[in-house]
Specification:
It contains five helices and no strands. By secondary structure, it is an all-alpha fold. It is elongated. The structure holds heme C.
């Protein structure tokens, strides 16, 4: 028994460690992560005053309303959301217009946010 007990204990520790929850990946926050990107890279043209294509990206209301052509977000589907596809569009349609594309990290973040349901958190 003297030998077995530590081995059993060790085995138990290993099993429990393997079971330890792999903390759920934190959801992307609109307020903390998405809004700052849009404010920095998009709001110059898509702000409250005379927004291009009537698309105001400076507020949840504006983003939800979309452009003069309709919604720019299909919650849960980044591939169908203009907010996402415009970031990787070819040629002059790519946003932000007349500027370098957003870093891949930020494009991924926006895609994730849309795929997680495009929720507007307030904190
Ligand atoms: C320099 C000005 C400018 C900036 C910056 C800019 N846009 Fe645009 N955006 C435009 C113009 C102009 C249009 C109208 C379509 C066109 O002419 O390409 C447009 C159109 C769009 C559309 C298409 C709307 C529709 O329904 O057809 C989306 C989506 C969009 N922009 C998203 C963004 C996002 C997201 C950013 C920031 C990453 C951004 N834009 C930054 C000027 C800009």
């Amino acid at each position: 028994m003297k030998v077995i007990a530590p081995i059993v204990a060790l085995g138990l520790i290993i099993v429990l460690a393997a079971w330890a929850p792999v903390g759920p990946k934190k959801k992307v926050s609109y307020t903390k992560e998405i809004a700052p990107i849009l404010t920095r890279s998009c709001v110059a043209c898509h702000g409250k005053e005379h927004p291009k294509e009537d698309l105001d990206l400076s507020s949840p209301e504006g983003i939800t309303k979309g452009s003069e052509h309709g919604a720019v977000i299909v919650a849960g589907k980044s591939s169908e959301s203009k907010l996402c596809t415009s970031l990787v569009a070819k040629g002059g349609d790519r946003m932000p217009r007349k500027a370098a594309p957003l870093p891949k990290k930020e494009i991924d973040l926006i895609n994730r946010w849309v795929n997680e349901g495009a929720k507007f958190d307030t904190k």
